[in-house]
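Render LacI family transcriptional regulator in 3D.
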Amino acid sequence: MTEQAGPRTVTIRDVARLAGVSTSTVSRVLDDRHPPSTSPSAERVRAAAAELGYRPDAYASGLRRQHTGTVGVLVPRLSDTVMAVFFEEVARACARQAGFAMVATTEDRPEAEKATVETLLRQRVDGLILTTARLEDPVAAQLRAQGVPHVLALRTDHISPSATGDDELGGYLATRHLLDLGHRNIALVAGPSYASTAVARQAGYRRAMTEAGIHEVDHLVHESTFGMDSGETVARAILADPDRPTAIFAVNDNTAIGVLAAAQAAGLSVPEDLSVVGYNDIPVSARLPVALTTVRVPFDQIAANAVELLTQQRTGALGEPRRVVTPTLIPRQSTARPPATGIARGRRKPQERPGRMPT
């Protein structure tokens, strides 16, 4: 079902029209940095603003802000390694232009995003880089309406300027790797449907499976969050199925680590009983007891693209509004050919699992 559009945002043009003054007068009267005026026109402006429900906010002030060399970066949480790594890359990209990046978190809660954006804009940042975008994101829509320079990074809403990886290709590469090893019963821990990254990686998975002649995959796709706990919970259910898969592609490395934990709990050896592929290639992936096969995302390139797109908006030189970089499959120890036909795939005793995760 399509959601009903919310009420139209009241702008300073609406206030100016009702008060019978110019937009610059409205901007000056409602700017709390200026001494309050008691002139008749100022009174009309305040009355019009109250009648229309207009509230001056950080979005509008962004249009009047002078260059400060500071970029605001919005992330769901810094405890997520991907977000921490990406912010560090943005900070480096800003430093190369003698700029500075500051970060704020939202815990991936939409209701917190608008307030966090306003807080960053009150710090007089030149623009915003948001990794929190959801499909049909109202915050991105409001930023566009107010003309605030911003770039969506890692995720996109397919409208605002964005810097991302080719997630559809990455999902395809991960699944193709498992198919090339001989797997056919491949489950997907798919991530949340509101995130473009998860949607695109699932599309890549489905394309690879279709090319292999496997058309019925809905029963193999399991929605999750991006966290380890969710990956483990979903994988426990997947592995409890009597016709459990021989391989799992997880939407990111965190959920893949959760899958590894679930495999250990089920008494399965990785990769002898179950192959696992993650996504992002966070630093820990190569250092796990069973090194994780994953898809490497060039976060440094995405960060550089995001900063460049933001600079182009500020200077009025915006070219191609969407930058997409290519991911790379990194095969490691967590994937192998599936168990031979006819060999029982049951529980093993812990001492019989040479590649099991530590307790």
